Amino acid sequence: MTPVDSRPIDEMTAKELAQYLYDLFQRTALDLNLGTQYTKADCIELSETGIGVRRTAKEKKLLLLSHYYTRPEIQKFSDFVHDSLGLGLKAQELIQSQSDKVSAVWLSAVRFMGDTVKIILGDNMPVYMPKFSGCSLVASLHDVPFNYQEHSERETSIKLLQRMKSEHPVDAWLKKNPDGIVLSYMNSDPESKRKSWSVFTSRNAMKVLESAMRENPGKRVYMLPDQFLSNFVLNMARAANNPWIKPDLVDIFDGLCHVHAQKISPLALDEALARYPNAALVVHPECGCAVDCFVRVAKGLIPRPIFIGSTQEMVEYAKKPDTPNEIIVATEAGHVFTLRDLIPHKTFYPVTSQATCEFMKATKLLDLYNAINNPDWNQYEIRMSSEIIRDTRPAIDRMRANA
Q: I need a surface site. Which of 36, 47, 85, 115 has the fewest CB within 10 A?
């Protein structure tokens, strides 16, 4: 919420805010394939809508959250921007310290992130989303195919909300492995989390896997849903000769994120490396190129600084003064905007201009404005039974213990 000139957005006039947004987005967003040119006319409209969003949020005591991959204008008018776990934890912290100042939480992201925030906050705080958008990674759990060239975000999101699959893959695996241990990625549906021994994030996946295998020796482990992240973790464990992790006892679900699998290919990575010879490389472990990068780095085939980590770890890495001033970013394009906004003195390149998630970008600023100003919020509320919240807490707690 703080521009480069250090003046809060809430203190700007509409004219000043429009100019600020225009200058910012011209510098940070035009090459990210967002479907918006951010002309001066666009920014005037966004500033007026954003002022309305902030006014309503203040009047109704709303806490506005958004993920790093959402549209730039959504991020700029949110109270807090973070990764999927960080959003829930920060909301919990802010509500506990300012309980009288928050009446409801509104999250702009994809649906599973809203579910996670609701699980963390529990029954006492209502959580709303201006749009219930799906996720191609979660869709893979329910046999809902997604190819960005053939399927729309809208049709896939609708199918997911209808819960197409009759038998959850966790149930099918547990039938064959009744004593097995399930570990679900934070980017999964509530049912996966509910039936898991622990949840894990891209930041602590190996710690959680080690903890699970140490405390449950000899038992099979099921990691889901992202195959690239799970395989990356096993490769790291083998390279480190981790004494607790037994890769032959780990089964991996074959799900994937369409951005990281279909849009960011090894070819796209090689092209970016050739295009920016002096740039460091940061890679999300969900990327299809992550394991390939890991192997190539081990063989000395990519002679430049490389960091593989979560979205939040990328921010922390990029902020370090000894990190190169040019960085290629191999993850969803929205994070390139975030990095450019937070660290304006460094240069960030998207690994490909196609790395845009239709699901994350589905919510627009006008959607948020219309939703929070709608007299009937029922259609926007995330409803979850107390039993699901209760049953999911142990897995979340184990994940937090390994943070």
A: 36
Contact between residue 126 and residue 381 where contact means Cβ atoms under 8 Å apart: yes
* pTM of the full structure: 0.93
Buried b (16+ CB within 10 A) or exposed e, 300-330: eebeeebbbbbbbbbbebbeeeebeeebbbb
Domains of the chain: 9-133+360-386 (3.40.50.10800), 165-257 (3.40.50.10800), 260-350 (3.40.50.10800)
User: Which residues 6+ apart lie within 8 Å of 347 measured at CB?
Assistant: 279, 325, 326, 327
- Give the sign of the dihedral formed by CA 253, CA 363, CA 311, CA 384: negative
- Total length of the chain: 403
Q: Angle formed by the axes of helices 334-342 and 311-319, to 10°?
A: 30
73 with 365: CB under 8 angstroms? Answer: yes
Cα–Cα–Cα angle for 50, 55, 56, rounded to 5 degrees:
100
Distance between the two ends of the chain, CA-based, in angstroms?
27
Name the nearest CA neighbour of 233 among 397, 242, 136, 317. 242
Reading the block at residue 116, the tokens are 């996670």
| pLDDT by residue, tens only, the chain of 403 residues | 444 456 788 899 999 999 999 999 999 999 999 999 999 999 999 999 999 999 999 999 999 999 999 999 999 999 999 988 889 888 999 888 876 789 999 999 999 999 999 999 999 899 999 999 999 999 999 888 788 888 889 988 988 877 655 689 999 999 999 999 999 999 999 999 999 999 999 999 999 999 999 999 999 999 999 999 999 999 999 999 999 999 999 999 999 999 988 898 878 889 999 999 999 999 999 887 777 787 787 788 888 999 999 999 999 999 999 999 999 999 998 899 999 999 999 999 999 988 999 999 999 999 999 999 999 999 999 999 999 999 999 999 999 888 7
Are 161 and 134 in contact by the 8 Å Cβ rule? The answer is: yes
**Cβ neighbours of residue 274 under 8 Å, at least 6 residues apart?**
none
The token duo for 350 is: 């998207």
- Using alpha carbons, list the distances in angstroms from residue 15 to 3, 20, 41, 90: 15, 9, 11, 32
